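site-specific DNA-methyltransferase (adenine-specific)
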Amino acid sequence: MVSPILKWAGGKRQLLDELYDRFPESYEHFHEPFFGGGAMFFDLEPENGTINDTNARLINFYEQVRDRPEELIELLESFDDPESDPDPERRFSESNRKGKEIKNYYYQQRELFNNRPYGDEYDDLEEAALLLYLNRTCYNGLYRENSSGGFNVPIGRYSNPDWVRSEEIRNASRVLENTEIHNRDFEYVLEAAEEGDLVYFDPPYEPMSPTAYFTDYSAEGFGKEDQERLLEVAQELDQMGVNVILSNSGVMYEMYDDSGFYVEVEGATRSINSDGENRDEVDEIIATNIAPERRRRAGQQGLADF
Ligand SMILES: C[S@@+](CC[C@H](N)C(=O)[O-])C[C@H]1O[C@@H](n2cnc3c(N)ncnc32)[C@H](O)[C@@H]1O
């Protein structure tokens, strides 16, 4: 059980027990197509498999963690406090790309992190170090980009920010050792997964009641059509004999239920009936194709826990 390195919106640490309850008795490879902070992956420590995310800088970060952990730690150790003065030896020590004054080190780091989206030269290792630095020093640990892809979260207020995270980096590097890392759309998993594997999908979503109008729903640009595509991919994986577990918004309850998945509601304060009544408090679902009799026994742990 390893801690995630990054704080990420939609992290699933609070849902892990409910997700593990749906796990099959055994599986071959583990795949996580919407990786984000990878709360499930790091907790599970799978021996091999694939991870994926469309965020290119996030994926570069995990590649550097896997392949160059000590260099990454060394670079992070060389960084200064976010409130300190900009480094005069580096670009953007006085103003940003738009000519706006840069008053402290944080905003210089943020401007350097945006080299890639603004078409400037960048270094993979430095970009990864900057991602972790900003994640640990920005406001609320948020990750948000403007329409050009520039990271634009302001400085946070921390009395003693810890951005080096050497233990977490070394542990994550070890867990990622035999993992293939992809930067594609989630559909890559149709090529990557084989019969007997396990796929955990955690797409972008905002928990909400299924009475909300479906087409109004879109999180991080992941809209209705993407949700429909995801259901089709889940169905195709099911046909291939792949185990699928998915967390999603309550809005998606019927789509998965109608398609023959086992769907249960999390975070509801009362039981749900199937004809759509009494569903107002639904906010999150877990859907799976793993029948209750195929699930591992309650309380059964992975080998790593013994
Ligand atoms: C809810 S977050 C995953 C959170 C993760 N389970 C955790 O514990 O931190 C969803 C992720 O999906 C990624 N994403 C968005 N659209 C995608 C797509 N079409 N294919 C793959 N990943 C996508 C986002 O960049 C984001 O990191």
